[in-house]
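My current task is to audit a protein record that another person submitted. What it holds is a sequence and that sequence's fold in token form. Thanks in advance; the entry in question is below.
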Amino acid sequence: MDDKILYRMKDIVDEMNLPRSTITDWLSDFHMYIPIQRNGSRKLYKRETINVLRAIHEYRTMEIDKQEIMYRLKERFPIVLDDEDDREAVIKHLDHIHSTDQAHPDLMNFMRLQATTVRDLQKEQIKLNEVLEEQEKTINSLTNEQGNYTANMNTLENRIKQMEDKHSREYQSLKNELETEKNKTWLQKLLGK
């Protein structure tokens, strides 16, 4: 990209490869570092805007809070407010925030550690929830399989019972036939009656 070219919001979003809402939020939050040129009601952005947004992205990736990002940007980029009084007020405000942070470094470090711990715990909670979901799916799958096995066992038991009943009837029938044959006289047996 050429330094003399002005960029539309769409161009910046394409260049940064980040969601438009994120870019819009950063442009609003860190407006004092964003050089803008107006073309009627339309805002156009200078090349420096991309550099500022990349720095913000780098700091956000490092999980640095907004106030600290503002202070760090002050060290790397000029404040581009039109009114000199506004620029001085912003610089004083940023210096005050930073000096307050530096005046209580133990507290700030503790708070950062707490924030990191909370973030880590949230990540662990998400992982645990994912594991629990997988376990629930496995339990549901095993429950379904057990239901299928139970149904199959019931079917097999019914078939065995039917076969036992059939064989019992056949056995009883043969037993009755043998009893009848046994009770016949030898003449009846010979004549086949």
Q: What stands out?
A: Residues 105-183 form the longest helix (79 residues). The mean pLDDT is 82. The chain is about 75% helix and 5% strand.
